[in-house]
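To assess whether the prediction recovers the assembly geometry, we first specified each molecular entity separately, as shown.
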Amino acid sequence: MSMMKGGLRLALIAALLASGAAHGVAYEPGHWNMPVGVTEMSRTVFGLHMLIFWVCVGIAVLVFGAMFYSVFAHRKSRHPKPADFHESTAVEIAWTVVPFVILVLMAIPAAGTLVKMEDMRGSEVSIKVTGFQWKWQYEYLDQGVSFYSTLHADSNRARQLHSGIDPNSVPNYLLEVDNRLVVPTGKKLRFLITANDVIHAWWVPDLAVKKDAIPGFVNEMWAIVETPGIYRGVCAELCGRDHGFMPIVVEAVEPAKYEQWLAARKAGQPTDIGHGPARSDVAAASNVASDAVAAVPAQASSEPAAPAAASADGEKVYNAQCAACHQPTGKGMPPSFPALVGSAIVNGPAAAHIQHTLKGKNLMPPFARLSDADIAAAVTHERTSWGNQGGAVTAEQVRAQRGK
Amino acid sequence: MSHDHAHAGHADDHHHGPVQLSDGFGKWILRWITTTNHKDLGTLYLLLSCTMFLIGGLMSLVIRAELWMPGLQFVDPEFFNQMTTLHALVMIFGGVMPGFVGLANWMVPMQVGAGDLALPRVNNWGFWILPFAFTMLLSGLFMDSGAPAGGWTMYPPLVLQTGSSFPMLIFAVHLMGISSITGAINVVVTILNMRAPGMTLLKLPLFSWTWLVTGYLLIATMPVLAGAVTMLLTDKYFATSFFSAAGGGDPVMFQHIFWFFGHPEVYILILPAFGVISTIIPTFARKRLFGYDSMVYAVASIAFLSFIVWAHHMFTVGMPLAGELFFMFATMLIAVPTGVKVFNWIATMWRGAMTFETPMLFAIAFVFLFTIGGFSGLMLAIAPADFQYHDTYFVVAHFHYVLVPGAVFAIIAAVYYWIPKWTGVMYNETLGKLHFWLSAIFINVLFFPQHFIGLAGMQRRVPDYALAFADVNEWSSIGAFGFFVAQFLMLYNFARCVWFRGGMQKATARVWEGAHGLEWTVPSPAPYHTFEVPPVLPPDESTVVWDEADEVVTGNKG
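The predicted structure of the complete assembly is given in tokenized form:
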């Protein structure tokens, strides 16, 4: 029965690990349990999790203990004459009632926690979270601040099939974004969760929040983050090809810092809070472009953005905004995501192509939030790459198409 | 009623006997296509199940190869999603369900003393639908737009992004559903109408009992699934908006309808397994099943509860508090009858005289590992904790524990247990035990560590993951390849029994010292036609489930 013993031993090791790692954080190497997290609710959930776990371990020791004792002692070689009992009303009632009582005792704290979780009253900061294939949009309600958050460029390069880049060389591989969600500590945050295309789920283990983002519906949940820090999460609901590549990064800062950040965001100034680490391998010249990309989404999407540096690198914008669907090769993923190579729109009149980009179509979201220069750069990249013959467009042409 | 009656058809075997390959290839093929014999169809179902397990297993190897290391080494994420989607559909609808239908075909008529299933032509039709269904399902792999990749749960709106394989998926599900319903009706009608005289319902062998209940679950839920996928079809092609919020529909409604089918479905996959284990443990403990009546009531309670717990698959969709509380409490309640079953199995073993032939080893592993899956299931029932577990590898570990060392081990145990009756020769016990130990070890290497990466934050259905999960995924992948390779020992062993019997030990009619039930009263291999005249059971308290007779069961003494 060495397998059985092995299983039990593993369970015991697991239990020890679980009880020992009281300060674990999600995604930390060597951490093998649910994180305790940084909210009162996450600690309560952790406590509930460990309580059920130990109840199960206790029952398992009794039940499997009896079974393996029987396997050992009641084998034919040791116990050749089988007993002939085959029912006992008293015993059967006992092992119906006792588990029932244990379940009731477990249900009480679980129900209490659930009631608290659903209590949305008294929230101080409301953030609308919208899932897209495959990025998140964060809108600070009543603040006019809104931006998109996508997988960090370093991770994005390394995660391509046959990229040749060792994921171990990428800091926070698959868990870093370009724009982090910045929240104040000590305030009751209310998250309003929805989606634009398919169902996603917004999950940050350290905050013990997970809710489905459903197109056409708005879900709510709340959290009070106690400790400043960076808390990572992922999309938990299968949402298509790049489901595994739309992480969440929450940066919790002191309220005063948060106010500063908010003010800077509103003014459209770059700030070092809320940005993923600088891209490691971009030349100084194109840094201008990537900063422009990062800063522009801070503008409320209704205001046309100021023209960015004329040197905006079309391929960079394309890879950040378009490549998730249309692929870095421009070949797309038909039928959901059409190829741009040889496409009639890309090789046709510039005005139609720009309109398509500004307004979106079917699954494709509108990109009017980008600056004229960025759109011009990305559209030019599409029209002049992979053998396409559409010809370059200018930021002026893009501006002329806005509002049409 | 004599022993001979049971196979009185022997004399005219020449008339009724099956066409053999030596009678001509064309005739032989036609025999299998047109057969209405429950044993032939049982064999066909089991062969289909085995083929599908191999195909689904290969898909899981693609998944585990890609997950072996962080980064994408082998497949595009879209193809990865096709693999997870098809792996689930193939394993559930192609592996486990036909596996249990095959066992029911072979064993239900023999256990209740019936000559065949009640509706033999329907039986033939039900089987021959399936190869077409799975051809359609897998055809997407050869289409430019690829196979379905939206998950086996087919949630809209994502599933509506499927390309040309979408209608193939929908019609394949329709066909599988029709096949399941025909099989279920056949089993239910046979058990209710064709039991041997004297076999009251509370003398029915447990495997047949669990199949009776499973039959009702199938009849109740498969039409619901068919309705759900038909609505998907019209949403995609006929401009309806059942599940589109933009048109006034509700994407969450699909999930409610799907899981109203889906939760009973998981009991469809496990109840016959309970029946198999309740048959095997008494045989090898040489002791009557403890608490037969409470086993039957437990199965019925689980079946009832399975209809009122569906939304525990959807705790994170944003249900009202009252809904979350109800589904949490109802789900926790399932632990009670399930616990009763586990306790009864152990009480059956208690003070028995156990031997550990391969079927018993698999049955004990079932009790142990299925119960671990039950514990994680109980944890998942706790809604506030489920918010953390949901859609992580903790869930993946949970349902693979109940499905692989649960349902699949039960099918394997059942085939080891009954194959001497089917083929007339004993499988190789040494190879069988080796197969068991390798399977039991590798399955735990494969799935046990997944609990922990799930808790630590790894979500389901992703082709790549954060570096913290690299070690555990590597162990899991090693376990997966080991488990897959180990299954060829079983295939070799069974292939010897079926086709290459040279040197194999002949099986007796009773086969196992502690075996009881009508199926053991007929010779091994079982003749092509059994119980053309039903055996009569004595109206006393002794049952077919348990009887002290040495060679022949009660019924044939009178």
